[in-house]
Amino acid sequence: MNERNKKPNVGGRIRTLRERRKLSLRALSEASGLSINAIGMIERGENSPTVSSLHALANALHVRIIDLFEEAKEHAVVVVRKEQRLASTGDCGVMESLGQGLRNQQLEPFIVSIQPGCHGTGMDQGTGPVRHSGEEFVYCIDGEIEYEVSDTVYTLNEGDSLVFDATQPHLFRNNSDRPARFIVVFQALDGARLAVQRHLSQEGLPET
Known about the structure:
- Helices cover about 20% and strands about 25% of the residues.
- By secondary structure, it is α+β, with helices and mostly antiparallel strands.
- It has one domain (about 1-208): Jelly Rolls.
């Protein structure tokens, strides 16, 4: 495989970060709220982490979500070519990073492709609502998506956008009969730990 097209080993990266912090699987499980078995499967590449799982793991490891994709060097300017995007894939679609590694970065932009009939907060079906600090911006590139924010549903078609206080419970879904793509940008009030972390965890929401 061409190095430019190489996809990140998210599970291996999570294991590296865990071991670097001298955390056992049990300790990371307790800190993230994910089961030991779930973390083990992600680390071995047997299961793709959902957005909510990524948030939980990033929060527990004290890193940004994007840091789970690869160890980024810091720059004043970052250019990402289409074929170089880092991606996380699940049974519902693909979440690709549009930029990481900016010094003191406070925004984390992603492009999300979601299949018909899927809903949740990540690339796997059925994940529940999440909330996190800061704000969230959404722009529908093509297709139709629904964003539910605090029990209110907003339907976005091509060219529509949405911005909201991300401390409110929210999730997205594709109830149409064709794939949809949208850009989502996470922003955190705390510049050291970006909001994407919470899309990967369900911290702060009641157990279901």
